[in-house]
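thread from #wetlab-drylab

HS: before we spend reagent money on co-crystallization trials with zinc ion, can we at least see a predicted complex? here's what I'd submit
DV: go for it
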Amino acid sequence: MSDPRAQDVLQRVFGYESFRGDQQAIVDHVVGGGDALVLMPTGGGKSLCYQVPALVRAGTGIVVSPLIALMQDQVDALTELGVRAAFLNSTQDWREARDVEQAFLDGELDLLYVAPERLLTDRCLQLLDRGRIALFAIDEAHCVSQWGHDFRPEYLGLSMLHERWPDVPRIALTATATAATRVEIAQRLALDEARHFVASFDRPNIRYRIVEKNEVRRQLLDLLRSEHEGDSGVVYCLSRARVEETADFLCQNGVSALPYHAGLSPAVRASNQSRFLREDGIVMVATIAFGMGIDKPDVRFVAHIDLPKSVEGYYQETGRAGRDGLPATAWLAYGLQDVVQQRRMIDESPGDEAYRRRLGQQLDAMLGLCETVECRRVRLLNYFGQTITACGNCDVCLEPPQAWDGTVAAQKVLSAVYRLWKERGQRYGAGHIIDILRGKATDRTRQHGHETLSVFGVGADLSESAWRGVLRQLLAHGLLTVDHEGFGTLALTEGSRAVLKGEYQLMLRRESEKKGRAAKSGGRARAAAVELPADAQPLFEALRNWRGEVAKNHGVPAYVIFHDATLREIALARPGSIQELGHINGVGVRKLEAYGEDILRLVA
Ligand code: ADP
Ligand code: ZN
């Protein structure tokens, strides 16, 4: 039942022995002319799902992608494999575009990448009418979702593809996985008949860790120094200013860090992105403007130093770590201030009440993940409608947090907020509330006579940071809220009363003691070379150096020539002939021809 031509393309062109997971079924379905909606986590192997059918079917596969800045790299990588690929986008001059158009009309392209706004122009539609189309692949299909974090209005126009070319199969792909998003994609792209392929979203090689934020830059630096020295990684921040200051801080401390955010000029962004892809060990400090479509396989960590706005966004961003399947870290530092700030941003955001409610729900889900005493992975996958057992590779599994009865502590906080409001008509932020609870005399307590409040000093038994933990969790659970007037002042909620009345026991979470420090939770996420046996190391290094040279000469990232995983296999297997080398995963016909002799010489 499966198509022998697909298997042949997989082995000959891509150099892979077998399909992974659903790939085979998807490829067969699309080769047979069916529509498909593919949901696979980052690194799951989505590209082959449309590249193989495009090579098997007659005509050119049209790939719709919003990622103009990455098209050149994608085309270069395919060219290295001997695939005839090109793109049409606004970075080209008219002459280049004309040549690509001609190649398409002459049937000389296997794959053509086009930005959606370009595709929807009359000129482009008419061009496509005059050539032969193998399929449409709609990459990053979640961009059609208005509620999502990457909405692109141009994507809404893509439903017309079906009307204009009803016989051409369409395959939409995304790594965003909630059921709601899936339904929305199918609807908006008019994929009524499409078969849905939903892969497991588990990324077992990623270790999820969420720590309490205190001195976040220090904590970040500790993480990099103790576990990810010299590794490539991404640090996500909420604002441009924070990107800049964090990148500066890391550079001053000897880390090769670069900034990336929408406020930088396109030239600087392109150059930083290109360095991240091409050089080893660059740390990209970025807003969420960075990362979609970046297929660098050896990103060893993704760190968030501000709270992401949704679990979907968080999962998408952390998914950029460890695409090569080797161990990687997803690390998030989060604290009281994050909750206050995000609640405030939601209150102040434009849009109607329904929109704000939705943002609030997304934040609540994210906070639930942060405060969980359950396995993080169980929680994450549950969010995407998938069930697993505790993973053994997240901070909760490795160092279970303790639960303690926080009812009385919570009552102290809530009654302080209540009294200030009721008796004095005043509202304050977390810092001042904590000062009152701990009985700390400050200018403000004196000035406002807060030392005479009955709650003054009732919480001297807990440290300031313990109180911050209590307040943070009350906010996260919606038992306390940020006042709508803004300024981060605190107010009671509907739920507060039951706690004040002692109607139930409120269990809170306390970090295990070690975690605050740069605890080694079970060894560092090792880079590819470290785990090789000693006698294979020199060959691996020699292959890497050779690869670096070739990549430089071709002007492409090193992993486009060969992945680390392929070089590892070569270093271990020491193939003695072209034929043996051809059996290594990731060595296809074209690369065997181009580099076979070089590699055999290095092995010998
Ligand atoms: P996605 O687009 O889903 O994030 P990619 O298509 O970039 O993932 O694939 C992730 C990695 O897995 C790539 O390095 C790719 O070469 C590799 N890969 C994909 N399919 C296979 C396969 N069948 N066998 C071996 N490696 C594969
Ligand atoms: Zn776990």
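DV: DSSP finds 27 helices and 17 strands in the chain.
HS: ok that's useful, forwarding to the group
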